[in-house]
Amino acid sequence: MNECKREGNFRSHEKHICFYCFSKFSPGISETCDICNWKKCLNGHCGCDVSKETKIALDKFYDLFCDSKNNYSVETKNVLYFMIKTYWGYCL
């Protein structure tokens, strides 16, 4: 189970999108799933509802872009972000 490194640090205006039903929700007021440790959307979906492959990809994405302890420079993060935006249509 992945530990949420941001628990208690969500901004009040911050919105997330459920990767299962694509609804928007506020993680600061959402419940945390006891099984997967993901925030539940308003429809009750969490990491338990997505495929293992999707969960692994999302965990890698968040480790890369959201974990403050990673060793990537701002330059590297910007390049990776640019690559995702630029090549998104080509990679699908």
Would you kindly provide a written description of the structure presented here, covering whatever features stand out?
There is one protein chain. This protein has 92 residues and is mainly α. It is 35% helix and 4% strand. It has two helices and two strands; from the N terminus they run ββαα. Strands 1-2 form a two-stranded antiparallel ribbon. The chain starts with 15 loop residues before the first strand and ends with a helix.
The count of strands amounts to 2
Major β-sheet profile: 2 strands, antiparallel
Strand coverage percent: under 5%
Overall form? globular
Strands across the major sheet, in which order? 1-2
User: What ranges have pLDDT less than 50 throughout 5 or more consecutive residues?
Assistant: none
The separation of the N and C termini measures: 28 Å
Radius of gyration: 14 Å
Structural class computed from helices and strand pairing: mainly alpha
Query: Whole-number average pLDDT?
Result: 78
Order of helices and strands: EEHH
Helix content: 25-40%
**How many helices does DSSP assign?**
2
Keywords, separated by commas or semicolons:
globular; 35% helix; two-stranded antiparallel sheet; 2 helices; 92 residues; single chain
Q: What is the fold's blueprint, element by element?
A:
Elements: E1 16-17, E2 24-25, H1 52-65, H2 74-91
Antiparallel strand pairs: 1-2
Quick structural summary:
The protein has helices spanning 52-65, 74-91; strands at residues 16-17, 24-25. Helices cover 35% and strands 4% of the residues.
